[in-house]
């Protein structure tokens, strides 16, 4: 069997087009331009690349992009002051603080200082609680992108067995929550899981969010399963730098029914969902109808 390729790059372009349409409507009918502020502390090169492409796509969608670059040794107080200023700025509808933060900064404290309604990452405890109880929230971008692709491919995932590998607050746990909200039967696997290959073999849907290059081989996958590869791992192969996922694409794509590639899968959808969340936040802030199909 050769898997259907789920083209995240093309899907993301469609989402961005929808976002741009809503932005035009907000501007023309209401005189409002959605704004996204990204805060980057330190000079991690991978983060810089990611922040740059977010800024570029934000502007391409017709929105305002604000970037705050701060030194790696920025104090907690100074970072909190910037967030406070953004919380109170009516031109800013979404705030993203790039993670991971340098070690001397308390990540939980920083994230929970963002106004929940501007927390376009969906990491604030209020949004986590709202999602966990099935209430309207800001939904984390990476899991939201994965859910959109799964819904698009399957129509409904109700009753399907889903296995999420990884239990981080930014991917694994919110992913499991979204799958559960869509009535999948969800298993969360992690580094202490016994017989991971056996657990994965049960899955109609596998979401791999581990951070280990090509860890999941094809022979763990049930024939015909849908595989969503969240992993972004930079490796060196044949003297070249390469981006690979947490799934061994070569072997998995021979067994799976459908699979997302890396690059060109979950990554582009993450950024598209960030733009979508910013429009959603902007509509909510102004008491306007929210875009349909761009939220969970
Ligand atoms: N495409 C995108 O937009 C994004 C991609 N990513 C990528 O997704 C991956 C995961 O990111 P993130 O969730 O932040 O990572 P974390 O490091 O926070 O979490 C990794 C999870 O994987 C589990 N794990 C580690 N080793 C194993 C193992 N051998 N077997 C089973 N489980 C294991 C860990 O288990 P335990 O809890 O027991 O330690 C942990 O729960 C990374 O490659 C990251 O770069 C992340 C965000 C966005
Ligand atoms: N507050 C916060 N929110 C995040 O959502 C967040 C974060 N911090 N820190 C880092 C991770 C990682 N992440 C990615 C998003 C897009 C791509 C992406 O577009 N990847 C391209 C390839 C890019 C390349 O070639 O390097 C692709 O997969 O096709 C990758 C990784 C968001 N994260």
Can you walk me through this structure?
Keywords: Amino-acid biosynthesis, Histidine biosynthesis, Hydrolase, Methionine biosynthesis, Multifunctional enzyme, NADP, One-carbon metabolism, Oxidoreductase, Purine biosynthesis. Residues 6-121 form the Tetrahydrofolate dehydrogenase/cyclohydrolase catalytic domain. This is Bifunctional protein FolD. One of its GO terms (molecular function) is methylenetetrahydrofolate dehydrogenase (NADP+) activity. The chain is an alpha/beta fold and 296 residues long. It folds into 2 domains: 29-118, 3-Layer(aba) Sandwich (Rossmann fold); 141-268, Rossmann fold, CATH 3.40.50.720. Helices cover 40% and strands 17% of the residues. It has 10 helices and 11 strands. The chain has helices at 8-30, 45-60, 76-87, 107-111, 125-132, 141-154, 172-181, 196-201, 249-252, 266-285; strands spanning 4-5, 35-41, 64-70, 94-97, 161-165, 185-189, 205-208, 226-229, 233-237, 240-244, 258-259. The protein has a 6-stranded parallel β-sheet with strand order 1-11-8-7-5-6. A 3-stranded parallel β-sheet has the order 3-2-4, sandwiched between helices. β9 and β10 form a beta hairpin. α2 (45-60) crosses α10 (266-285). The radius of gyration is 19 Å and the shape is globular. It starts with a strand and ends in an 11-residue tail after the last helix. Bound molecules: NADPH dihydro-nicotinamide-adenine-dinucleotide phosphate (NDP) and 5,10-Methenyltetrahydrofolate (GUE). 5,10-Methenyltetrahydrofolate (GUE) binds at residues 49-50, 96-99, 121, 141-142, 232, 243, 262-264, 267-268, 270-271.
């Amino acid at each position: 069997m050769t898997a259907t390729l789920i083209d995240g790059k093309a899907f993301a372009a469609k989402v961005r087009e929808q976002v741009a349409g809503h932005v035009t409507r907000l501007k023309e009918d209401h005189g409002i331009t959605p704004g996204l502020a990204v805060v980057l502390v330190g000079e991690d090169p991978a983060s810089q690349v990611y922040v740059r492409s977010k800024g570029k796509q934000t502007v391409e969608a017709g929105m305002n992009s604000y970037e705050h670059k701060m030194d790696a040794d920025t104090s907690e107080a100074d970072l909190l002051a910037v967030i406070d200023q953004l919380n109170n700025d009516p031109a800013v509808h979404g705030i993203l603080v790039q993670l991971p933060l340098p070690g001397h900064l308390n990540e939980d404290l920083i994230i929970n200082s963002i106004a929940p309604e501007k927390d376009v990452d969906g990491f604030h405890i209020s949004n986590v609680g709202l999602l966990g109880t099935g209430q309207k929230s800001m939904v984390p971008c990476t899991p939201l992108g994965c859910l959109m692709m799964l819904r698009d491919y399957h129509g409904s995932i109700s009753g399907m067995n889903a296995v999420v590998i990884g239990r981080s607050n930014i991917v694994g746990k919110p992913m499991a929550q979204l799958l559960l909200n869509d009535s999948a039967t969800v298993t969360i696997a992690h580094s202490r899981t016994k017989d991971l290959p056996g657990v994965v073999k049960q899955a109609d849907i596998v979401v791999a969010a581990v951070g280990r290059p090509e860890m999941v081989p094809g022979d763990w996958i049930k024939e015909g399963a849908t595989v969503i590869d969240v992993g972004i791992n930079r490796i060196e192969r044949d003297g070249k730098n390469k981006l690979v996922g947490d799934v061994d694409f070569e072997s998995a794509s021979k067994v799976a029914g459908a699979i997302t590639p890396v690059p060109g899968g979950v990554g582009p959808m993450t950024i598209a969902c960030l733009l979508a969340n910013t429009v959603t936040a902007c509509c909510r802030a102004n008491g306007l109808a929210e875009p349909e199909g761009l939220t969970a």
